[in-house]
Amino acid sequence: MNFYITSGTNSFLSMIKKKHNKEEMTFMQNSQHSLLVHETAKKSKFQQPRSYKIIDQYGQLSDGSFASLNYIPVTDEGKPIFIYTYKNLSEKLDKAAGLQAVRVLEPFKSNTFVVLTVWKNEAYYKDWEATDSFENLKQTNNNQQILADPAYSAHYYIQNDEE
After folding, report:
1. pTM of the full predicted structure?
2. Nearest-angstrom CA–CA distance, 111 and 61
3. Which PANTHER family match (predicted)?
4. CA dist., res. 34 & res. 20, Å (int)
5. Angle subtended at Cα 142 by Cα 139 and Cα 148, rounded to the nearest 5 degrees
């Protein structure tokens, strides 16, 4: 399964989503910008997407209201270690309260993997951030020296169709 991300204005992304309403697309936004993500086994409907292969998944993105995207630049040598470590991430996180969905994404054209977690709401995510599970996950990358550059994250609110 493939995962595509594009960004743009709210109105432009809404137009794309409406045009392809039979596709599995999720609209996300924060105070700086908006994203539209597309999950499919086919080609993307986006003109210039960031393209990924899903290497682990759990749940439906539309089941939550808050998303955290962790961008993790990995060295070429570190890619197999990262994939091995994160391939079953959803099993490690399935007991986290409020977790609705997980996607671990391997890039087709870059070295920056994405770990996307979707939560029932922002409060559940904040509670999870204070757990040992979250701290252990952060340390996994640092201990294995697999980062090409510092990891970074962005947070979004999911806009469901009925909103």
Report:
1. 0.90
2. 24
3. SIGNAL TRANSDUCTION PROTEIN TRAP
4. 17
5. 140
